[in-house]
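User: I'm curious whether this sequence folds into something compact or stays loose and floppy. Could you predict its structure so I can see for myself?
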Amino acid sequence: MVRMYYTKLLIWLTVWLLPMGTHATEPVACDVLIYGATPAGIMAAIAASENGQRTYLLAPNQIVGGVMTSGLCATDMNSSSLIGGYARKFFNRVYRHYEIPATWQAETRDEYFSRSVHRVYTGKNDALEMQWVFEPRVAKQIYDQMLAEANVQVITHARLDLTKGVERSGNRIHKIRLESGQAFVAKVYIDATYEGDLMAQSGSEFIVGRESNETYGEKFNGVHGKRMSELYASSSGPVNVDPFVRPGHPSSGLLPFVAPHPPGVQGQADRGVQAYCFRYTLTNNPTNRRSIERPSNFNPLWFEMLGRLCQANPEITLRSLMSMAPLPNQKVDVNVSNMPGVNYGWANGDYTLRSELMQLHKDFALGKLYFLITDPRVPKAVRDELSTYGLPKDEYADNDNFPYELYVREARRMVSEYVMTEHDELRSATRTVADGIAVGSYAVDSHQVGYYVDELGELFVDGSLWQNARRYPISYRSIIPKQSQCVNLVVPVCVSSSHSAYGSIRMEPVFMVMGHSAGTAAALAIQRECSLQELPYTTLRAKLEAEGQIFID
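Assistant: Here's the prediction. I'll summarize afterward.
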């Protein structure tokens, strides 16, 4: 039976995980078309297919899984009991995979969890048989298995034409077209990309950047600057960093990534987008480690601010310079190699611009590693510890052991009939929606949007935000456009939300749950021959409950 299963899986992979051809053919017809093979897109595809719909999943690049197969493998799972449906089944499979002793090659299961339990929200829930820490290659293996079992038809290297990729008929998407010229005709479309590329051409309203606090009566939206000295301190007091190339000499110019003035007054709207980074994987297993080398495009000035921070705080530790969440088999998920201020053009940019920005972020990530290992201002303990790490030879083997995807934390956000805001999420919130399709609970979390100096030349950090949230339902209306704009599109990632509220929603497990709900909603709308806006919520909820989704009232 095992051999037969893997034979079927190999046939599915051979047939469906192939690049789309470069020549135009007749349009491919299907019931549900999902653009974006993110975790949300995968869950949507499985849900639609399991509900009897002929389903295609288009991956713009060479792999499925989004950032969860590109390094974000210490999942932000602060409330595992709120994750149900096909998302829970994924984490169930991760749990069962790591129950097998042979999967532990560099350490045992007990050794791993004994050192990691306080670092990754415990990493697992034995009662629910869920585990949310895993290796990237394991996530890909499980996603491939789930898609094969659901008979989802997956096509890789299938990039949407960004200028004429959507053909509409009134308030309905009729057809989409790829760069290759290949077209697809579906009854319902789901945009599960991190950028909202299909949604942007569908006639649906969207926004990029931060709203003002006045827009939705919020407290933490818009420009949100803090003195750097408020964020960094040593045992001797606050740490100030001189922002000029030559310390004390404004005429020498500002360090890279520092703007010469604030983007606006506190709470004002602007086009700023929180920083992106690569969530790359490292290992300190000597037999599986590639040493960190000087990148060909290394620019030490990029890291001068970091060097000065270390010099001013000789007690600084590696874990305060970068997040290194433990993964199985002596690997770590590295976070916070952010490049604030350089990504504002990503959301509406073309593929050439995005490729250039990806390379820039890769150069920055590898350059930061090299800098921290070699610069004498970095404490010796930090340099020594980090020099024991390197890129894992058994991850991203066809991509020079580096992740495939950039961590796009936020891009476009749809503006639909219901906009999720701080009034839904903060612990002080009182507003509750009656048409929930997922439950959020993570803190309102935004990374830096940029650095700037004030008129006195003091360095500020703009955009960093962390506010505790309650458990809250996410509205069905926030994942579908206004009826007047598009009736056959679901958007489970670039949801209708304010910037600050999106900081809580944007966690991959929640995206997965919303993706599942999107796929089921698509299937039900097709079965009932109605628009997504006309689909009765009671019908959708009953079906989602039967499929194991979690609700709070």
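Summary: The mean pLDDT is 95. The longest strand covers residues 172-177.
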